[in-house]
Amino acid sequence: MNGLNTLQQPKATINESHEFDLNLLEVFESVYLFKSVKHAANQLNKSSAAISQSLNKLRLHFSDPLFVRHGMKLTSTTVADNIHAKLHDKYEDLLSELGYFITGQNTSEINVFTRGYSGIRIIPLLGSVIEKHDLQCKILHHIIDASNSSAEELLMLRKVDILFDAMPIHRVDFVCNALWEEELVLVCRQDHPRMGDYVPAEKIREENISMFNVADGLQNLIDKQYRLDLSIRRKAFSLRSNSIFTIAAMTAATDSLAIIPLALYLQMKEGFSLKVINTDIILPKITLYMIVKKATLENPVIENIIKKMMIHLNGQ
User: Fold this and answer.
1) Can you spell out the DSSP letters for 124-184?
2) pLDDT digits (tens, 9 = 90+) for 264-278
3) What is the pLDDT of residues 113-124, one digit of tens each?
4) Residue 98 has pLDDT above 70, yes or no
5) 108-316 domain in CATH 3.10.120.10?
6) Cα three-residue angle 315-139-101, rounded to 5 degrees
7) 236, 243, 255: which is closest to 189 by C-alpha?
8) Which of 153 and 42 is assigned the larger pLDDT?
9) Rounded to an integer, what distance in angstroms lies between the CA atom of residue 234 and that of residue 232?
10) Domain boundaries, the chain
11) Can you say whether the dihedral through the CA atoms of 31, 34, 35, 39 is positive or negative?
12) What is the fold of 2-103?
């Protein structure tokens, strides 16, 4: 009897592994990265109830809570950290291999993610390159929601083919190329009662100033440098927005000033009746980056688009 029991035990373990739903790994990775059932559900296009149900299955399988609530976010347990460390790279490799056989590396739909501002600058450029070289593909453009997704998280979850952002990502499995620098300018409406041809910094300090959100880390840099220049200013920023058009409309309708990219000012100045304020305040510049996972470059369609775009930017 002891010999029979010894032979039966491995069989039970194998059956248990066969019964494990591999789709639960995607749920686990999403919750682990976003630390939120709601945000994981949004990324996976599932309901929060479905994510919670999957989490319960994972907790039962691993005999561990995996995630516990800490304030507004979920905190991973030690078991969850170990699972992520052991499985994440293998899971990514598996998806890459499956993608090769499923798509044949010839997909014509390319998911491009940008923030609202960079999309205005990048998508027309991308479209002109595709049109010029008659590249057969469809661009699916998505806006990064700054409230629940970082660029790195989106790339790690394989929701993105090409990502354009104002913050670089330095990882061995990513390719990150700087595209160009964006100059920022201080603007106001053309008939502003206090803004003449030249306005010294001390006068600027007395005004409300609107800013658009570029990227979390970069925004902190801009805020820090800008507030250093205007350290004794008496008023707070009047508006923060992810929409450059909202900022422009606010500036056109009020006495508020705004900090926006020069390239967009040149496009919007007539429509919104804006003008640049000449001042001795030095604003930082923004660098736009193109970020792609190395595995994505195995797709010849994407590789060709990126190559043609870089040639275009380099003036060749």
Assistant:
1) HHHHHHHHHTT---EEEEEE--TTT--HHHHHHTT--SEEEESS----TTEEEEEEEEEEE
2) 899 999 999 999 999
3) 887 778 888 999
4) no
5) no
6) 105
7) 255
8) 42
9) 6
10) 2-103, 108-316
11) negative
12) Arc Repressor Mutant, subunit A (1.10.10)
